[in-house]
Structures are given as structure tokens and as C-alpha cells.
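Let us practice reading a record.
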Amino acid sequence: MESTQFDVLIVGAGISGIGMAYWLQERCPNKRFAVLEARETIGGTWSLFQYPGIRSDSDMFTFGYRFKPWTNPQSLSAGTDILSYLQDTIDENNLGQYIHYQHKMKSANWSDEDQRWQLQVDTPDGVQQWDCQFLSVCTGYYNYKEAHRPSFQGEEDFKGPIVIPQFWPKDLDYKGKKIAVVGSGATAVTLVPAMADSGAEQVTMIQRSPTYIMNLPNRNQLFIWFKKVLPISWAYRLARWQNISLQMISFGLSKLFPRFMKRTIMKEAAKQLPAGYPVDKHFNPKYNPWDQRLCVVPDGDLFQTISDGKAEVVTDTISHFTPNGIITNSGEEVEADIIVLATGLKIQVLGGADLTINGAAVPFNQAMIYKGMMVSGVPNLIYAFGYTNASWTLKVDLTANYLCKLLQHMDRNNYTVVQPIKEGQESEEDFLNLSSGYIQRAKEVLPKQGARRPWRTYQSYLVDMMATRWGSVKDRWLAFK
């Protein structure tokens, strides 16, 4: 069995892993590192998902990297454009030399005796052992091989295909067909206008309960103006901070004045829908804004599709499937030739790998997260986990820079091991404070957060930036050896 030793191993070559590799190369040129990618290509979500209309649900001026300007004025961009952006990042910075494809981490064991991580990695040449001093987990947070797939009575009677967006069939022909999309999250609100505008006869979104949906103009006019008078790097930086500020203001107002924000969002939806449309029924969630993620639609495309009569929304629970579609519990029949189950993701931590310390399993769901990126009681491990209320990449950037800062501190002081200690900080508070179904279903696998810093996950870029970029590495919760 081959043994390959590194200072840092990055697991995953999606947007998190590529960003981590860039900052390690930039800030820690003395470190030997590699990126292990389980699939045959980079990109994670953006190469895996192939459903119609796949795009970002965060604006690209904050979803893009801090170090590489997003030059397209389009804010919510197609998955293919994002994948090209990631490939350009790799090519421009010569990061491809670090990526090992079809290398899947099956397990990782920390050895106190060796003071290193020992990974069992599936490769085209069989299982190999890869060792590292520091492990950087950039696998995202959901299962690539399995989606959340509820079963419905009478599914076997339906005569058409039942499709899961995560595994979209390349040969699916839906032109001229009636489509029922079950779900109301980011995937559903992307699919409905995309399919309606590309040949479907009629698209119906069946939702158990409404979601907050906001319109976002899909061309950043401020960025366009800035580009005319400033270098592209400055234009991008200013547009980025404009959007970061708007995100923070929107989230803050939603928490401080939820009724006001609820009314505002619903009024904006009503303006874009036909007169007399039952907004209160289909776009009035039972929860407050940002208790779950808001959905953003570019240039109001979902509302426009509904106004044009190409799509409709049914708010009800499902009774059963029939040969020709779906019957709701109120007795309404939705005719369909194809049913799409956009019913959510299935959360998975560590990419499904087993994590042990000296051969003993780590109870990940009982651990607490330090600064939103390190795991209590686990040595030399950093987890790239993005924001739930803002662009994922904002937190990933801070996490990567914090790791570089931590490694530099350890080198200066001749430390080889660091781990967060949670003594006196027991908590049962969920790490992710959303009421979304996919988060609630994952309570048994996700770790916890504490009542105060550094164990509190604030979901605030400004707070985290001050703590990680300018704050001291040393504190009483980190134990160095």
C-alpha cells in the first residue's frame, strides 16, 4: 500500500477546495499539500447537477472568490459559467498540479503517536494510505449519491418518468409535456421557469407550504458603471462590498422587524403577479424571513412565467399519484406527463468518510464547532462550512485564510498539534439555526454550537472577518502542543 505524506491534505475540489488550495499556495508556500477529489472532474455541485436552468442562488459578486474578480455583470449565473470560472481559477494559478482525481477519502484516523492523519483513499490503483499533518475538509454538506426522496402513495401507478433533479437524465425530453414539480425551494423555483421557457406545455409547482421568494435584477448596474471608470479589480471589490452590505442589512432587518420584512417581500411579489392573484395563499410562508433560506429569482423569472400562464402554483399536500398525475388532499388533480421531485437534499458530513482518533470513532454530532470551522476535541482538522444566510464562499475564504494564519503561528512556535477544547461549554444548540426540512432531518449528524464566541456560529461575515483576519490565533480554548 503506497504511503504519501503531506503537510496539508484538502478533501474536495469544489469551490471550497479550490479556494483553500489558492490561499495555501499564496500564504504558505513552504507547505506541501494536495487536493483529493472523489470524482473525475472539479466543481462539485456545478459539475454534478445538470437539471435545466441550474444556476447560483447567491449573487456572483459575493459567491466568487475575493482574489478573482467575477467579470460578468450577471448576478445569478448559470452553472456552466460558474464551472468555467472555477477552471479559469485553476489554470491562472497553476492549481491543477495539486489535484488528484478519483481519489476518495474513505476514512481518516488521527494518530497521537505519529501526530498525523492517516487517510485510507480509494484510487484507480486501489486503496492507498495518504498521511498529513493537517486535514482540510472541503466536501460540502450534502450527499452526492443520495437526495431526500420521500415516497408517495400510488407512485407505481404513474405512467410517466419520476425524476430527481440531482440525477437529471441527459435524454429526458419534456418539450410539449405537462410537468409537475414537487417542492418550493431553490431547485424548484429554478426548474419551473427554465422548463416553461424551453418547451414544456405547462409546469405546475406543487408546494406543501410557501417559501419567501425575492426578485433580484440580474445585471449589476453599479458594477457596469464602476468598470467604465475603475480597474476591474476595484469595480469587483466595490460591487462585492455593496452586495455584502445589502445581505447583512436584509438579514438584520428580517431578525429585528420580521413582520415588516414579511409584508415587504409579499408586496414585491404581488407587484409582479397578475391582479387578484392569491399571493397570500401561494407566497405567504408560515415562518419569519430567514428562519429558512430565502429564494432569489433573477429578474423575477418565476413571477413572469406565472403571469404569462406558462406555470402555476398549487399549495397543498399530496394525497396520491395516479396514472395521469397527482391528486392533492383537497381533491385537486394536477395532470402530468413527468413528475420532478425537487424535495430537497440529504446532508452528509465529511463526505461520508469515517473519522477516528487512535482508532476510536469521533462522535461528530456531540462535538462543538470552534469559530465555525474547527471541531472540538479533534486535532489538526479544519472544516470549510459556508453561510446559510449569505454566499457560501464568503466563509470559505475566511476559513482558508485562518488556516494559513494558524499554520504560520504553529511554525513560529514549533507547534505540531492544535485542537479546540470545549470544557465547560456543553451545549445542545444546533449548529445551523434554520428550520428548513433538510436541516431538521440532519440533527442527528450535525455538531452543536455554543452560546457565545468562539463557539457561537454568528452567520455574519463582518463578525467572522474581524475574529479571524484581525483577531489573535491564541486563546484559552485552543490547546497547542
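A brief commentary: DSSP finds 13 helices and 25 strands in the chain.
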